[in-house]
Write a structure and sequence with these properties.
It is built from eleven helices and 13 strands. It is an alpha/beta fold and about 280 residues long. Strands 1-5-4-2-3 form a five-stranded parallel sheet. A four-stranded parallel sheet has the order 8-6-11-12, covered by helices on one side. Strand 4 (about 90-95), helix 4 (about 100-110) and strand 5 (about 120) form a beta-alpha-beta unit. Helix 4 crosses helix 10. The protein is globular. It starts with a strand and ends with a strand.
Length: about 280
């Protein structure tokens, strides 16, 4: 699927399409205070008919790195997809609340594993209900499907890639894209990072949609970025960075990778930092 979003009207017309699987991606932010609601609790309270629930930091993370919500290795990722009826021929539609890019996180994960038939419900759950869409508490069950992971290493940056940038040994562009609210809680940055907020690239006022192309170009110009250069995006736990990845691809970048260990891995491993510039 070429477009990163579908509208609520499109989804309503395809609810009964056997090829479509809807994924409720609402999640508790990794490392958040216990007062934050669990994604599965939100799902249980009401979701789009036919939707399954997958939490990026619970269901789709690498068990070897509990301190950072890195994407699960291929065997585990494929098993979760298969168990939920998502196979090689499935069109996946992800949704969230429209103000945190959990849907984008799933889109990036699936693209990383070679599955391009995936999109986000524009505006998230609020757009669905505003359009007259109903909610249910029924939990669907689907037959197992065959999901074949086909890794695309270029879409994922390693800790070593970022260390090379931090040490000045790499010419790759490195962007810190953590959303403004959580970024404000930090006082340090990874060396040589350029700040470009996912809160600007994906606009809450428009339900988490990617900003207009003119606005994207303005932000990119202000940051002094070169669209032709390899670019790595980072955030707190890989969520904002996944949204930034989609926005930069939409803006014409052709070589973008997500550092999905992000700040949680970097700070856990006590790697070098510098004071924030702003």
């Amino acid at each position: 699927m070429s477009a990163p979003f579908v509208e609520a009207k499109w989804l309503a017309e395809h609810l009964d399409d056997p090829r479509v699987r809807i994924v409720d991606t609402r999640s508790k932010p990794h490392g958040a205070a216990s007062a934050a609601p669990e994604g599965r609790e939100q799902y249980a309270g009401g979701h789009i008919p036919g939707a399954i629930h997958l939490d990026y930091a619970e269901d789709l993370h690498d068990l070897a790195t509990p301190y950072a919500a890195r994407v699960a290795p291929p065997e585990r990722f494929a098993a979760v997809m298969s168990e939920n009826g998502i196979g090689d021929g499935t069109l996946v539609i992800a949704y969230d609340e429209g103000n945190v890019s959990y849907g984008a996180r799933l889109v990036w994960m699936m693209r990383y594993y070679g599955h391009d038939d995936v999109a986000i419900l524009a505006g998230g759950l609020p757009a669905w209900t505003a359009s007259g869409g109903t909610l249910t508490t029924d939990v669907p069950r689907f037959p197992r499907a065959a999901f074949t992971p086909r890794e695309r290493p270029a879409l994922r940056a390693s800790r070593e890639d970022v260390i090379a940038i931090a040490q000045g040994r790499s010419g790759v562009q490195f962007l810190e894209t953590q959303r403004d609210g959580t970024y404000a809680q930090r006082d340090r940055d990874i060396p040589n990072a350029v700040r470009l907020s996912a809160s600007d690239l994906l606009e809450d006022a428009h339900g988490g949609r990617i900003a207009a192309r003119a606005r994207l170009d303005e932000l990119i110009s202000q940051a002094g970025l070169d669209k032709s250069k390899r670019t790595i995006v980072s955030c707190g736990s890989g969520v904002g960075a996944s949204g930034a990845y989609l926005a930069l691809c939409e803006a014409g970048f052709s070589n973008v990778a997500v550092y999905d260990g992000s700040w949680m891995e970097w700070s856990h491993d006590q790697l070098p930092t510098v004071p924030k510039k702003s």
